[in-house]
Each structure stands twice: as C-alpha cells, then as structure tokens.
Amino acid sequence: MGFNEFKELWGALNQWKTTFMTYDRDRSGTVEPNELHQAITSWGYNLSPNCLALLVKRYGQDNRIPFDEFVSCAVRLRLATDQFRRRDTAQTGSAQFLYDDFMQVVMYI
C-alpha cells in the first residue's frame, strides 16, 4: 500500500469512526439496527429493509453491531457499490453481470 492509498484509507476510517460515534447514541460501543440504518443513509445509501436486515444478521451480535463489524460492513458496502457503479454505466440503478464476472466481484469483496 502506497502513501496515497494509506491516506485514503485513514480518511475513510476516520469518517466511519465519526459516523459510528454519532449514531452510537447510548455510548454502548455498538449500534442498533435503526442506528445502522441512519448511519448508512447518512452516507447516501438507500437500502431496502430486507437488505438492512441481512447486514444486521451478518455483522451483528445479539442484534447490535460493534465498531469492528461496522467498519467491515462499511468497507463491503463501499466495494460492492464501486463494483456495481462500474457496470451501471448509464447510472440507472441497473447493471448486467455475466456469471463469472459476478462471482469475481463477490469473491473480491
């Protein structure tokens, strides 16, 4: 990792930390599903309730998301969105993937 990549990563981590602290209102060191939803929405994502429930199931422990899992979720959302946007060239919210391309994307993230 070069200096510029490190600088970008450091900036993203600081943003995620700030967001986490903003939405961890009870200072428990975790965010609840509604707080996760608010955090994700503040980043500009518009995910369905089903998608949010999957995130909580994947990253949560007893329906609460600790900071390290919050960061993992943020990284995966960012990578998946970046990969999707590369394929949604018309920016319509729709993209076509060949099976092999799809598998490479999901295995990458």
Describe the secondary-structure layout.
Layout (H helix, E strand, L loop, with lengths): L2 H21 L6 E2 L1 H10 L6 H11 L5 E2 H21 L11 H10 L1
Antiparallel strand pairs: 1-2
Helix pairs in contact: 1-2, 1-4
Secondary-structure element order, as H and E? HEHHEHH
What is the overall number of helices? 5
Mean pLDDT: 92
Helix content: 55-70%
Tell me the fraction of residues in β-strands, as a range.
Answer: under 5%
The major β-sheet equals:
2 strands, antiparallel
Detail the poorly predicted runs: none
Strand count: 2
Classification by helices and strands: mainly alpha
Strand order of the largest sheet: 1-2
Q: What is the CA–CA distance across the termini? A: 17 Å
Question: Rounded to an integer, what's the Rg over CA atoms?
Answer: 15 Å
What's the shape? Answer: globular
Please provide a written account of the structure.
This protein has 109 residues and is mainly alpha-helical. The protein has five helices and two strands. A two-stranded antiparallel sheet has the order 1-2. Helix 1 crosses helix 4. The longest helix is centred in the N-terminal third of the chain and has 21 residues. The radius of gyration is 15 Å and the shape is globular. It starts with a helix and ends with a helix.
